[in-house]
Amino acid sequence: MDKINVMDFEKKVVKQYFNDEDFFKFLEEKKELVLDYSKLALKELEDEDLDILGEESVIDYLEEIASITPNENPEGEDFIVQNLPLVASIAFNYLREGVAYLDVVQEGTMGLIKGIENYNGEKHGDFENYKKYWIIREIVLFINNKITDIKNEFKSFFKDKRENFGKVGHEHEEVEDKTEVYLTEEDLLPSIDAIDKREKLMEKLTEFSSLKNRLSSRQIEVLNYYFGFGVERRFSIFEIEEKLGIEKGKGDIIFEQALLILSTMEGKMFL
Fold first, then answer.
1. Model pTM?
2. pLDDT tens digits in sequence order for the chain, 271 residues long
3. Within 10 Å of residue 9's Cβ, how many Cβ atoms?
4. What is the spatial distance between Cα 262 and Cα 56, in angstroms, rounded to a whole number?
5. Which residues pair with 5 in a beta bridge?
6. Fewer CB within 10 Å, N side or C side of the chain?
7. What is the spatial distance between Cα 227 and Cα 63, in angstroms, rounded to a whole number?
8. Please, which residues bridge with residue 4 across strands?
9. Among 243, 105, 213, 81, CA closest to 234
């Protein structure tokens, strides 16, 4: 069976497979989807980064999903429920800047449902492989649409700056403390060339393939083992430390940081 890496599939979703007809044709090729996210070069956030995050927790949701009892012959709604741990696990890899984890899970679940509704064994082959395409496609389209909206807002902003460049704007109030230095928009965008360069940078940073994931690969591994996603059972933090070669006592820190990142409503867009 031919294979396709998940990050190559993401690019095709954004450029081609957003169209249902093209996506259906692609699924008939029955390629094996390889969930390899190593090229993302994920980096763990520092403590100072975590200070700016919110407080909403998703621990209850993840515990509920982790408690799902396996059923060898699920039907109807139970069939969807049995696949929710996979959706929750895949979503760890799509906590991109500007999106909330539970929103990603919701879109992935919609993809799972669509996949179930459209599945044809003769056309599509192995369902275990097939459902991942639908889950990831819906997540990628959701993130790309959201980023496109942000990109359009920035384009409108830069267009306005370009059209009104040099015109007299509102006067800035005088600052009493003369020792403080305040940067204005004129300081950041002092010329048409500077506006053009800033807009090009924005376009580059808001390409789907340029978005950073807020969880590191190690944090994702710890989460999957702790909640039992994609493994034979749930593992304790002590067992995870031994299995992944993590220094004793660091497993708790990695898990707590990952949970805090998951619990934010939305990540910031660093432009």
1. 0.74
2. 788 998 889 888 988 888 888 898 889 888 899 988 877 655 565 555 544 444 446 888 999 999 998 888 777 788 899 999 999 999 999 998 778 899 999 999 999 999 999 988 888 888 899 999 999 999 999 998 888 887 787 778 878 877 777 776 544 445 455 565 554 566 566 787 877 787 777 777 767 777 888 899 999 999 999 999 999 999 999 999 999 999 999 999 999 999 988 887 555 444 3
3. 21
4. 9
5. 34
6. N
7. 7
8. 33
9. 243
SS (H, E, C) the chain: CCEEEHHHHHHHHHHCCCCHHHHHHHHCCCCEEECCCHHHCCCCCCHHHHCCCCCCCCHHHHHHHHCCCCCCCCCCHHHHHHCHHHHHHHHHHHCECCCCHHHHHHHHHHHHHHHHHHCCHHHHCCHHHHHHHHHHHHHHHHHHHHHHHHHHHHHHHHHHHHHCCCCCCCCCCCCCCCCCCCCCHHHHCCCHHHHHHHHHHHHHHCCHHHCCECCCHHHHHHHHHHHCCCCCCCCCHHHHHHHHCCCCCHHHHHHHHHHHHHCCCCCCCCC
**Both tokens of residue 77?**
């709604």
